[in-house]
Design goal:
Elements (H helix, E strand, L loop, with lengths): L7 H12 L16 E4 L4 E5 L5 E5 L4 E4 L4 H14 L4 E5 L5 H4 L11 E5 H16 L12 E3 L2 E6 L2 E6 L11 E4 L4 E3 L5 E2 L13 H15 L4 E3 L2 E2 L6 E2 L1 H23 L4 H4 L16 H12 L1
Parallel strand pairs: 4-5, 5-6, 6-7, 11-13, 12-14
Antiparallel strand pairs: 1-2, 2-3, 3-4, 8-9, 9-10, 10-11, 13-15
Length: 302
């Protein structure tokens, strides 16, 4: 397996470029396309290269993949999984619609038996692609999940049970959490940015207040015995964590709303608020993109 320097900024930056435009991302930023696979249990692992974290299950009946990054990383993952298992690709699941999680879907077309996502995720994916096409922007060929759900969803892959949960709007209005129930692993998608400023997609129905409640429901549902997989992290080695990381991110969202509300009550303009370089009380959150948080909070509180 190829191992080179993993650029922690690359995945989120390129992901953000592809979130709403599906542009030709390779020409925008140079990057070292390193990839890494880490097994969390005997049968569940994570894949990182460029974009949101991918999780996968090696089951007796076939391979299950959660999220797909971009076409080239998806092909790397497919090649690596073929080395680890002779079983067919059974299922592709998307946690949400953003391009750094779904642009690689096309690599699985004709390979997996089916793909699934929350209904709002598929609607958002189609909407964004249509908007980009109408605007004349070059987009990655799309593969939309054929199966959708609106609340909970369950699937048996051999002896393994996979459950998807939707607790309402958060990062978007279509984020699902994917639970490998027998392996005690939950893929949170972009419902958790570990110590990294999050992207809050108001255009796709993001709701910070409800996001906080979603994380409460997640902690109540999954508890402390599970490993949690995060869509992005400031430190690329920390894309897997514990319930304490969920609490920490929830605290970030709470402190974000408190800070922006206080600034608004103090009579500061949006332009003045947007000059902030950190959120008081959550100094662990760093990286690019604090303006995205401030702008989303301002929109919501307005």
């Amino acid at each position: 397996m190829k191992r080179r320097n993993f650029l922690s900024n690359t995945g989120l930056t390129l992901g953000a470029l592809a979130l709403s435009r599906y542009t030709s991302f390779a020409s925008v930023l140079e990057y070292s396309a390193a990839y890494n696979i880490k097994m969390l249990t005997e049968n569940v692992g994570v894949f990182t290269e460029q974009g949101g974290t991918i999780a996968f299950l090696l089951s007796d009946s076939g391979l299950v993949v959660v999220d797909s990054q971009f076409p080239d990383p998806a092909k790397h993952l497919i090649d690596e999984l073929k080395k680890r298992s002779e079983k067919p690709f059974d299922l592709l699941i998307n946690t949400h619609h953003h391009g750094d999680h779904t642009s690689g879907n096309i690599a699985f077309k004709g390979l997996v038996k089916s793909a699934v996502a929350h209904k709002n995720s598929v609607d958002n994916q189609k909407r964004v692609a249509e908007e980009a096409t109408k605007a004349g922007r070059k987009i990655v060929e799309q593969y939309y999940p054929e199966m959708t759900f609106e609340k909970d969803w369950k699937y048996k892959a051999g002896d393994e049970t996979i459950k998807a949960y939707y607790f309402g709007a958060g990062h978007t209005n279509g984020d699902a959490m994917i639970h490998f129930a027998d392996q005690n692993v939950v893929h949170m998608g972009d419902l958790v940015f570990n110590r990294r400023y999050p992207f809050i997609d108001k255009a796709a129905g993001a709701d910070i207040h409800n996001w906080i409640k979603v994380l409460d429901k997640a902690m109540d549902t999954f508890g402390t015995k599970n490993q949690y997989v995060f869509g992005h992290a400031l430190d690329p080695e920390k894309i897997v964590g514990t319930q304490e990381d969920l609490k920490a991110f929830q605290n970030y969202l709470e402190k974000l709303l408190i800070f922006v509300e206080q600034e608004m009550k103090a009579g500061k303009s949006k332009e003045e608020i947007m000059k902030a370089t950190s959120i008081p009380g959550v100094d662990e959150w760093k990286g690019d993109g604090i303006s995205r948080s401030l702008d989303a909070a301002y929109q919501e509180l307005s």
